[in-house]
């Protein structure tokens, strides 16, 4: 029963903007699950649900994976909007951004967690990306260019 309830919770939060435990309990009850607020609270902890901000400025329950996916999409948009040029020097990729945007673009890069990248350093309008293997430079640059489309 618990696994069915958890599956229903995941289905509900994927399709509805559920803001409170009480709202989630009501929706579960409407689906035939007899739950208390305490049960819903435990389920939220076990499923590791978090509250995320919606586009309307309200909060809703989401899985950590979904929240990270949404954040990654936002970082990609920020990256694509502020990068001016991408070049390389040895095993370093040099990314030029609009003034004051390098930190945001570097955060987007770091959030990708690409194995080819050892790390990045951001200034005001320049990012240095250290690539582990110089042979991977062209591949990583292509990935960056794909993010910009």
- Give the C-level CATH assignment of the largest domain: Alpha Beta
**Broad shape:** elongated
CATH topological fold name of the largest domain: Gyrase A, domain 2
Going across the biggest sheet, name each strand in turn: 3-4-6-5
Order of H and E elements:
HHHEEHEEHEEH
Q: Structural class, please?
A: alpha+beta
Question: How many helices in DSSP terms?
Answer: 6
Q: Assess the beta-strand content as a share of residues.
A: 15-25%
User: Do you know the CATH architecture of the largest domain?
Assistant: 2-Layer Sandwich
Total beta strand runs:
6
Give the biggest sheet: 4 strands, antiparallel
Model description:
The protein folds into two domains: 2-47, Winged helix-like DNA-binding domain superfamily/Winged helix DNA-binding domain (Arc Repressor Mutant, subunit A, Orthogonal Bundle); 69-147, 2-Layer Sandwich (Gyrase A, domain 2). The protein is built from six helices and six strands; from the N terminus they run H-H-H-E-E-H-E-E-H-E-E-H. A hairpin with a 5-residue loop joins strand 1 and strand 2. Helix 4 packs across helix 5. The protein is 51% helix and 23% strand. With 149 residues, the chain is of the alpha+beta class. The termini are far apart. It has helices spanning 2-15, 21-30, 37-47, 64-82, 102-112, 137-147; strands at 49-53, 59-63, 83-89, 92-97, 117-122, 126-131. The model has no long low-confidence stretch (mean pLDDT 90).
List keywords for this structure.
single chain, 149 residues, Arc Repressor Mutant, subunit A, Gyrase A, domain 2, 2 domains, two-stranded antiparallel sheet, 6 strands, 23% strand, elongated
